[in-house]
Design a protein that fits this description.
The protein has helices spanning about 10-15, 20-30, 35-45, 70-100, 110-120, 140-170, 180-195. By secondary structure, the chain is mainly alpha-helical. It has a domain at about 10-35 and about 70-105 and about 140-195.
Length: about 200
């Protein structure tokens, strides 16, 4: 089975370092979701059934779709690899979303933005000479940039999870739950197991 990356140490500095945040999400998705077909193929054991010579006497129809994987292997994969990977990414995105909505007193660009705002207010604007001179686009704060990144990454996460869950549903016995419902059921089971 795949080895998922360890959960990052969640700090505001980790969240504001967008390269580190993106790299963690990319590596985590690459280890499990991007290679879901290979991970599922690794669960299939072709020699599980012994050879039956009687199948050579009649023409066998070509199997439709992919071969199903036994339910025990599937549930182990989902519980030990897939759902924990999704949970770590959800925890990371939720934590960073909280950081993005909190005030940021340590913003290093705060003074620079204030200076740019003052300059923009003091400019003399003559739109007859330059119709674009009235435009001023203030730079985003760190928290605004982080909120935009989190919003985009959540959309990517939803797309990846639905694709992954579709492939898991094809190969494993689908229980009719969507990706988020299955993850919530796993979370509930984990919390009851921990309570014991």
């Amino acid at each position: 089975m795949s080895r998922t990356p360890d959960a990052p140490r969640l700090t505001p500095q980790f969240c504001f370092n967008q390269t580190a945040l993106r790299d963690f999400l990319r590596i985590s998705r690459g280890a499990v979701d991007d290679t879901i077909s290979q991970n599922l193929n690794a669960l299939f054991t072709p020699g599980a059934k012994s050879f039956d010579p009687s199948i050579t006497t009649t023409r066998q129809p070509r199997p439709i779709g992919r071969r199903a994987i036994d339910s025990e292997s599937c549930s182990q994969f989902k519980e030990k690899v897939l759902f924990p990977s999704w949970q770590v990414r959800s925890d990371t995105l939720n934590y960073c979303a909280g950081v993005a909505t909190s005030p940021d007193p340590e913003d290093p660009d705060h003074v620079l933005r204030e200076v740019e705002d003052v300059r923009a207010r003091e400019r003399v604007i003559d739109e007859r000479l330059d119709p674009y001179s009235g435009r001023y686009f203030p730079r985003d704060t760190r928290t605004e940039a982080l909120a935009t990144l989190i919003r985009n990454e959540r959309m990517v996460e939803n797309i990846i999870r639905s694709r992954t869950w579709g492939l898991v549903g094809e190969r494993c016995d689908g229980n009719g739950l969507g990706a988020e419902q299955a993850l919530d059921a796993w979370r509930t089971k984990q919390s009851t197991d921990e309570a014991r």
